[in-house]
Every structure is written in C-alpha cells, then in structure tokens.
Write a structure and sequence with these properties.
Blueprint (H helix, E strand, L loop, with lengths): L3 H12 L12 H35 L6 H5 L21 H4 L16
Helix pairs in contact: 1-2
C-alpha cells in the first residue's frame, strides 16, 4: 500500500496528465500558476471524497451496519478510481445540489464514454 505522500503524487500525476506531468511554462510565475491550479484540484478531490465518506458512513450506520473507527481511520481521501479524468463534463448543478443537499451515493449505472 502506498504511503500518503506517494498517494498524493499518484493523484497529482493523474490530474496533471495533459502535459505528461511536466511544467510547460518557461517563466516562474507561469509555473507557480500551474502548481497552484494543481494544488487546488488536489484539495477539491480530497474535500469531495471526505464529504462523501462521511455521508456514506452515516448511511451505513443508519442501516445498522457496524463501521469500525479503526477502519475509518485507514480511509484515504486521495483515492480517484471513481473520477472521470477524460471525456465530457457538465457543470449544470443537479436540483438536489442547488437546494443544498449532497448527491445520492447510490452507484450509477455504468455508461460507455462518448
């Protein structure tokens, strides 16, 4: 199992895939902008995963499923298998999100990428 720093670098490489993980700006400010955007995206993934971990754990406990604190302590918000890094993106907010609720945690049906 990767340690946290290695997991963070793995996620960063996945996010930064467009330039093969290379800084392409030749001047310092441009490099700082690229690294700042990468840091922002890493933080967004960690926040998203953390919020949904909390929601799923609460749902499991509400259903009477025993979730051990030791297992929760080992969860990593740096996982990304559920994230579509390629393809089309929609930035239209679903009604549930517009009203301040989180999206459903039910697994969506698998779709074929367009």
């Amino acid at each position: 199992q990767l340690n946290r720093q290695e997991s963070r670098h793995e996620l960063a490489r996945k996010i930064f895939h467009g330039q093969k993980g290379e800084l392409r700006q030749s001047y310092r400010e441009g490099q700082e902008d690229q690294l700042g955007a990468l840091g922002l995206m890493l933080n967004i993934v960690v926040l998203w995963n953390t919020v949904y971990f909390q929601k799923i754990i609460a749902e499991m406990r509400a259903e009477g499923i025993h979730v051990r604190d030791e297992d929760i302590a080992r969860l990593s918000p740096l996982k990304f298998a559920h994230i579509n890094f390629h393809g089309r993106y929609s930035f239209a907010l679903p009604v549930e999100v517009q009203s301040g609720r989180l999206r459903s945690t039910a697994k969506p049906e698998k779709t074929t990428p367009v």
